UniProtKB/TrEMBL annotation, chain A:
UniProt family annotation: Belongs to the [NiFe]/[NiFeSe] hydrogenase large subunit family.
Species classification: Bacteria, Pseudomonadati, Pseudomonadota, Betaproteobacteria, Burkholderiales
Residues engaged in binding Ni(2+): C77, C80, C459
Taxonomic superkingdom: Bacteria
One of the record's GO molecular function terms: nickel cation binding
Pfam families, per database record: NiFeSe_Hases
SUPFAM superfamilies given in the database record: HydB/Nqo4-like
Binding site for Mg(2+): E58, L413, H465
Protein name, entry field: Nickel-dependent hydrogenase, large subunit
Annotated residues for binding of Fe cation: C80, C462
TrEMBL record, chain B:
Database matches in InterPro entries: Pept_HybD-like_dom_sf, Peptidase_A31
SUPFAM superfamilies linked to this entry: HybD-like
Organism, scientific name: Albidiferax ferrireducens (strain ATCC BAA-621 / DSM 15236 / T118)
GO biological process: protein processing
Keyword rRNA processing: no
GO MF entries: aspartic-type endopeptidase activity; enzyme activator activity
Protein name listed in UniProt: HoxW protein
């Protein structure tokens, strides 16, 4: 597993190359920041992706009554609030002794969660990634083929919106509101799905399945039309981590932890989510606020891993829904017996998951348990608990301890973007090796960096979305630490070189 | 799935931001206060969210006028007004859709021009997690609310 270019080699340093760490400009910006360090011969010696993180939220939660937390944690993220809502609820199920929650609560939560994952995946594919995928990066051949795909699917925008809308309606029907829902509570849920809402959703679910199948086909075609690009762009070997059901099936809501090594062999399986601290450790590095999780058994150098759709599809043994399972088999076959390591394969895997989500939703909508039955369970009180869920971007850990006064005394969160921190750095380094040419940061390089980062669908924007923030900043430094070039891509799409004021540097 | 919703109020005020991040709360706070101030007969819907997303294009359907409200780090204090036009900007590829891009989604979806949309950008200063809105931002919000009330009363 290559981790070269994270830190310049000692001999390069001895020849006058300086190590430079640049603090992110602000802790509240929802943008990525990349620094590249050149040697005296203008070769890339170091590449680092800095992502602003929200660890402060853990302090924010301490001292709050535990029953407030599942609603409060939704403010962590405007992209996947439902994932935080449910992960916190699962952790506090243990506090209130709801082991397990009732069948009704389990099914309504699953409906909420699979709706959230489905709509998040739809947004990413149809809108966030579509300009990359449908109009190509720089290849004329690619562009021609992509135009053909686009012509075959002229209503992509419409389907993307309506898939999202369907998911939002699922969330409203289960959480009570489109925003700041409170449907899931410690011990279960606080409402059934109404017959009217179920009927509305049942009316449209078959259409959603058809559109999800089309999306998988588009993703497959993209790979088939340009395998050289899709197999090599941002490709590197990594371990994989995800939840799986006890029988090895894909499960996005609950299960046991499984990890595979870079060759696809199982490292551990059947591990309880409550024991995550025995499996995973987080390394701190001086140049970024975001931690670097790794598997303890392998150590920090070899133990970093990927999470999310690419990991989940290859970590599970099967998908427990027929249409998506057929597509998973096609996906796995693409690897010709080897784990698929290509960053762009995230898109294909994401669409297979979206199809699975809609299949699961269809089954749950037909289940009478969502309309009636016990909502809340309880049992012997516990001091704390861990809630783990497969959020759209990957495995999400919520860990809390609660005092006798019902106030939270400890909170630890590991979000998917943190799990993928090292992997995203590797992807950016791979792109920098291939596309950085000389001393100028080109828009083409910036675009390729963005494509690599975006495949992981990171929550760079979990923070604020105030007008005027910069989504991406790339800085090029010379061997003496001097600024050579800096480019900024604004929220409005403006691309500009900026050799003005730079953040303070520590050497 | 039909994209045609039930009948809606002709006016929509849509604010977005995160209540837990200091001045980023200006959008939702503006919605909360306008809703409290609103005369019962005013034909207006109020919506708030963390950020604009593509499905919000459906919330524009059937409107005569739309007012978007967000905190801004770059506009002059206390607030800035912009009459918006649909545009396929780079926010299509980020998690933070611009109102112009949302209007473009509306056009892509419906094949017709979106309603008249105005952006009310309220100057913010501090966006720290867990921080309350700053005194300066609240002063800017008060000025913006006065303008927004007039906007609601126009043509009523």
């Amino acid at each position: 597993m290559s981790t070269s270019l994270e830190t310049a080699a000692p001999d390069a340093v001895a020849q006058g190359l300086r190590r430079v760490a640049i603090d992110p400009v602000s802790r509240v910006e929802g943008h990525g920041k990349v620094t590249l360090l050149l040697d005296a011969n203008h070769r890339v010696q170091q590449v680092r992706l800095h992502i602003v993180e929200f660890r402060g939220f853990e302090q924010f939660i301490q001292g709050r009554p535990y029953w407030e937390v599942p609603v409060m944690v939704q403010r962590l993220c405007g992209i996947c609030p439902v994932s935080h809502h449910l992960a916190a609820s699962k952790a506090f199920d243990r506090v209130v002794g709801a082991l397990p929650v009732t069948p009704t609560a389990d099914k309504i939560r699953r409906l909420m969660h699979y709706g959230q994952v489905m709509q998040s995946h739809a947004l990413h594919f149809f809108y966030l990634a579509a300009p990359d995928l449908l109009f190509g990066f720089d290849s004329e051949v690619n562009r021609r083929n992509i135009v053909g795909v686009a012509q075959a699917h002229p209503d992509i925008a419409r389907k993307g919106v309506l898939l999202r809308k369907f998911g939002q309606e699922l969330i409203r029907a289960t959480a009570g509101k489109r925003v700041h829902g409170s449907g899931s509570v410690p011990g279960g849920v606080n409402k059934h799905v109404s017959p009217q809402d179920r009927a509305l959703l049942q009316r449209d679910v078959a259409q959603m399945i058809a559109w999800a199948q089309e999306a998988v086909l588009i993703a497959k075609q993209l790979h088939a039309q340009n395998p050289a690009l899709y197999d090599s762009f941002g490709s590197f070997r990594s371990n994989l981590l995800s939840l799986v059901r006890m029988d090895g099936a894909l499960d996005l809501y609950d299960g046991v932890l499984r990890a595979r090594d870079t060759a696809g062999a199982i490292l551990f399986d059947g591990a309880s989510d409550q024991d995550y601290l025995g499996l995973i450790e987080e390394e701190v590095k001086p140049w970024t606020y975001m931690k670097f999780p790794f598997l303890k058994s392998l150590g920090p150098e070899l133990g970093w891993y990927r999470v999310g759709p690419l990991a989940r599809l290859q970590n599970c043994d099967f998908i427990p829904s027929p249409l998506a399972e057929r597509e998973r088999l096609d996906f796995i076959a693409w690897g010709r017996g080897e784990p698929i390591q290509a960053t762009l394969a995230y898109h294909w895997a994401r669409m297979v998951e979206m199809l699975h989500c809609v299949e699961v939703i269809q089954g749950l909508l037909d289940d009478p348990d969502i309309l009636g039955g016990e909502l809340i369970a309880s049992g012997p009180r516990q001091r704390g608990g861990v809630g783990v869920i497969e959020a759209p971007r990957g495995t999400l850990f919520h860990h809390y301890e609660v005092g006798d006064d019902d106030l939270v005394t400890m909170c630890n969160l590991i979000v998917a973007t943190t799990h993928n921190n090292q992997a995203m750095n590797e992807a950016v380094r791979s792109v920098a090796r291939e596309y950085l040419d000389g001393r100028e940061l080109t828009e083409g390089l910036l675009n390729h960096i963005e494509v690599a980062i975006r495949a992981y669908d990171p929550c760079l924007s979990c923070a604020t979305h105030a007008l005027g923030r910069m989504p991406l900043e790339v800085t090029l430094l010379g061997f003496d630490g001097a600024l050579i070039d800096r480019v900024l891509k604004s929220h409005s799409g403006e691309f500009r070189h900026d050799l003005g004021t730079v953040p303070s540097v520590s050497v | 799935m039909t994209a045609t919703p039930a009948p809606v109020a002709p006016l929509l005020v849509f604010g977005w931001g995160n209540l837990s991040r200091g001045d980023d709360a200006l959008g939702p706070l503006c919605i909360e206060r306008l809703r409290a101030l609103a005369a019962p007969a005013t034909a207006v819907d109020y919506l708030d969210d963390y950020q604009l997303q593509i499905e919000h294009a459906l919330d524009l359907v059937g409107r005569q006028r739309v007012l978007f409200v967000d905190a801004s780090l770059s506009c002059p204090a206390p607030f800035e007004l912009t009459q918006l036009q649909a545009a396929r900007d780079i926010s299509f590829t980020t998690h933070a859709l611009s109102p112009q891009a949302l209007m473009q989604v509306f056009f892509d979806l419906r094949g017709e021009a979106p309603p008249s949309c105005t952006l009310l950008a309220i100057r913010g200063e501090c966006f720290e997690l867990g921080a309350p809105p700053s005194p300066a931002a609240l002063a800017h919000l008060a000025a913006a609310l006065a303008w927004a009330t007039d906007w609601l009363d126009a043509d009523q």
